[in-house]
């Protein structure tokens, strides 16, 4: 299990792409799949590279991002 991890609540995501743009590690993309609302949801390409910065969470207009941070 990676130390920092991001989860997309697929059916809450509106596919706006803001998180894709703002992730400093460039590990988010829009999926080819379509969610229950008809949007292409965000997906995390490489959890291992997530630094838990929370930018995707902060920029997301929906409550679609959940960040799990390493405990220190
Ligand atoms: S927490 Fe930061 S590094 Fe991780 S997916 Fe979100 S924006 Fe990218
Ligand atoms: S910012 Fe939020 S709504 Fe927009 S694509 Fe990312 S997870 Fe989906």
Automatic annotation (TrEMBL):
Superkingdom of origin organism: Bacteria
Keywords: Iron, Iron-sulfur, Metal-binding
UniProt cross-references to PROSITE patterns, sorted A to Z: 4FE4S_FER_1, 4FE4S_FER_2
Species: candidate division WOR-3 bacterium
Domain called 4Fe-4S ferredoxin-type: residue spans: 4-33, 41-70
InterPro entries named in the record: 4Fe4S_Fe-S-bd (IPR017896), 4Fe4S_Fe_S_CS (IPR017900)
Protein name, UniProt field: Tungsten formylmethanofuran dehydrogenase
Signal peptide: none
MF-aspect GO terms: iron-sulfur cluster binding; metal ion binding
